[in-house]
């Protein structure tokens, strides 16, 4: 299973990718998480990526593409992967086709999570993350059992700096200008499965399951 999750910031890619990764036994590869990890560890890649993450704009393609190329060749990704947040523009998508054909692999399906803009605003500004284990919460839609603390590991939850309102607006415009064209790109290749991402988390997981079953036929 080589799956790409496509959708605007806040559409639920991370939430669904974590569930699917567990169900399917393939790694969840989030380019955003990889960048944040590099940033946290202070690697040269992290230093180079910082200003783009802070601004809510895209990290340059060459940096992003070589990071993905390396990651999908790690042993755990031999059985497949769920890519969350890549590709994010047309040239990344084109380059990704080259990467996959070099590795003699192919995409199984692209799951597009469709969510309206006002829902995205609410989801992003209310998102909270566990800095320790990566679990995702929402102050309203998916609150932790104890306010401010992770259900899984007990750590203090945090807000991503780029989830504040001004950066969210930039990220949504970057999505419209750069990422949206990928919907047609993958539709033309017969890989796109559109899912109603407005539904509750469990219902979205169910419809993705249905779409994956169809893409097997
Ligand atoms: P993305 O990775 O696409 O940016 P996330 O999975 O991080 O999106 O979800 C964004 C926010 O919305 C999180 O706070 C998450 O808890 C919440 N969320 C995710 N899916 C749903 C859903 N189906 N209904 C309501 N809230 C959701
Ligand atoms: P979200 O889940 O809310 O869409 P991500 O965690 O995927 O956010 O991305 C956070 C930031 O990481 C982006 O705003 C961008 O700066 C950078 N980033 C993530 N994926 C890519 C990519 N494929 N190309 C360029 N930049 C990326
Ligand atoms: Zn945790």
UniProtKB/TrEMBL annotation:
<feature type="binding site">
    <location>
        <position position="133"/>
    </location>
    <ligand>
        <name>Zn(2+)</name>
    </ligand>
</feature>
<dbReference type="InterPro" id="IPR027417">
    <property type="entry name" value="P-loop_NTPase"/>
</dbReference>
<feature type="domain" description="Adenylate kinase active site lid">
    <location>
        <begin position="127"/>
        <end position="162"/>
    </location>
</feature>
<comment type="pathway">
    <text>Purine metabolism; AMP biosynthesis via salvage pathway; AMP from ADP: step 1/1.</text>
</comment>
<protein>
    <recommendedName>
        <fullName>Adenylate kinase</fullName>
        <ecNumber>2.7.4.3</ecNumber>
    </recommendedName>
</protein>
<keyword id="KW-0808">Transferase</keyword>
<keyword id="KW-0479">Metal-binding</keyword>
<feature type="binding site">
    <location>
        <position position="153"/>
    </location>
    <ligand>
        <name>Zn(2+)</name>
    </ligand>
</feature>
<keyword id="KW-0963">Cytoplasm</keyword>
<dbReference type="GO" id="GO:0008270">
    <property type="term" value="F:zinc ion binding"/>
</dbReference>
<dbReference type="InterPro" id="IPR000850">
    <property type="entry name" value="Adenylat/UMP-CMP_kin"/>
</dbReference>
<feature type="binding site">
    <location>
        <position position="171"/>
    </location>
    <ligand>
        <name>AMP</name>
    </ligand>
</feature>
<feature type="binding site">
    <location>
        <position position="36"/>
    </location>
    <ligand>
        <name>AMP</name>
    </ligand>
</feature>
<comment type="similarity">
    <text>Belongs to the adenylate kinase family.</text>
</comment>
<dbReference type="GO" id="GO:0005524">
    <property type="term" value="F:ATP binding"/>
</dbReference>
<keyword id="KW-0547">Nucleotide-binding</keyword>
<feature type="binding site">
    <location>
        <position position="31"/>
    </location>
    <ligand>
        <name>AMP</name>
    </ligand>
</feature>
<dbReference type="InterPro" id="IPR006259">
    <property type="entry name" value="Adenyl_kin_sub"/>
</dbReference>
<dbReference type="Pfam" id="PF05191">
    <property type="entry name" value="ADK_lid"/>
</dbReference>
<dbReference type="InterPro" id="IPR007862">
    <property type="entry name" value="Adenylate_kinase_lid-dom"/>
</dbReference>
<feature type="binding site">
    <location>
        <begin position="85"/>
        <end position="88"/>
    </location>
    <ligand>
        <name>AMP</name>
    </ligand>
</feature>
<keyword id="KW-0418">Kinase</keyword>
<comment type="function">
    <text>Catalyzes the reversible transfer of the terminal phosphate group between ATP and AMP. Plays an important role in cellular energy homeostasis and in adenine nucleotide metabolism.</text>
</comment>
<feature type="binding site">
    <location>
        <begin position="10"/>
        <end position="15"/>
    </location>
    <ligand>
        <name>ATP</name>
    </ligand>
</feature>
<keyword id="KW-0862">Zinc</keyword>
<dbReference type="GO" id="GO:0005737">
    <property type="term" value="C:cytoplasm"/>
</dbReference>
<feature type="binding site">
    <location>
        <position position="92"/>
    </location>
    <ligand>
        <name>AMP</name>
    </ligand>
</feature>
<dbReference type="Pfam" id="PF00406">
    <property type="entry name" value="ADK"/>
</dbReference>
<comment type="subunit">
    <text>Monomer.</text>
</comment>
<dbReference type="GO" id="GO:0044209">
    <property type="term" value="P:AMP salvage"/>
</dbReference>
<keyword id="KW-0067">ATP-binding</keyword>
<feature type="binding site">
    <location>
        <position position="127"/>
    </location>
    <ligand>
        <name>ATP</name>
    </ligand>
</feature>
<feature type="binding site">
    <location>
        <position position="150"/>
    </location>
    <ligand>
        <name>Zn(2+)</name>
    </ligand>
</feature>
<keyword id="KW-0545">Nucleotide biosynthesis</keyword>
<feature type="binding site">
    <location>
        <position position="199"/>
    </location>
    <ligand>
        <name>ATP</name>
    </ligand>
</feature>
<dbReference type="InterPro" id="IPR033690">
    <property type="entry name" value="Adenylat_kinase_CS"/>
</dbReference>
<feature type="binding site">
    <location>
        <position position="130"/>
    </location>
    <ligand>
        <name>Zn(2+)</name>
    </ligand>
</feature>
<feature type="binding site">
    <location>
        <begin position="57"/>
        <end position="59"/>
    </location>
    <ligand>
        <name>AMP</name>
    </ligand>
</feature>
<dbReference type="GO" id="GO:0004017">
    <property type="term" value="F:AMP kinase activity"/>
</dbReference>
<feature type="region of interest" description="NMP">
    <location>
        <begin position="30"/>
        <end position="59"/>
    </location>
</feature>
<feature type="region of interest" description="LID">
    <location>
        <begin position="126"/>
        <end position="163"/>
    </location>
</feature>
<feature type="binding site">
    <location>
        <position position="160"/>
    </location>
    <ligand>
        <name>AMP</name>
    </ligand>
</feature>
């Amino acid at each position: 299973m080589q799956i790409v999750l496509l959708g605007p910031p806040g559409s639920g890619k991370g939430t669904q990718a974590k569930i699917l990764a567990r169900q399917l036994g393939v790694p969840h590869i989030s380019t955003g998480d990889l960048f944040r990890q590099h940033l946290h560890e202070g690697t040269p890649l992290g230093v180079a990526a910082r200003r783009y993450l802070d601004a809510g704009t895209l990290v340059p393609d060459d940096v992003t593409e070589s990071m993905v190329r390396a990651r999908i060749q790690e042993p755990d990704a031999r059985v497949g992967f769920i890519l969350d947040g890549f590709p994010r523009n047309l040239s990344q998508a084109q380059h990704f086709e080259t990467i996959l054909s070099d590795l003699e692999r192919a995409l199984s399906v692209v799951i597009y999570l469709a969510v309206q803009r006002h829902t995205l605003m609410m989801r992003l500004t209310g998102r909270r993350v566990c800095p320790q284990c990566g679990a995702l919460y929402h102050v309203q839609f998916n609150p932790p059992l104890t306010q401010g603390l992770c259900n899984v590991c007990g750590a203090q939850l945090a807000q991503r700096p780029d989830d504040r309102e001004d950066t969210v607006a930039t990220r949504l415009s970057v999505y419209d200008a750069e990422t949206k064209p990928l919907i047609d790109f993958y539709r033309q290749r017969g890989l796109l499965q559109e899912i109603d991402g407005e539904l509750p988390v469990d219902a979205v997981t169910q419809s993705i399951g249905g779409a994956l079953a169809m893409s097997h036929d």
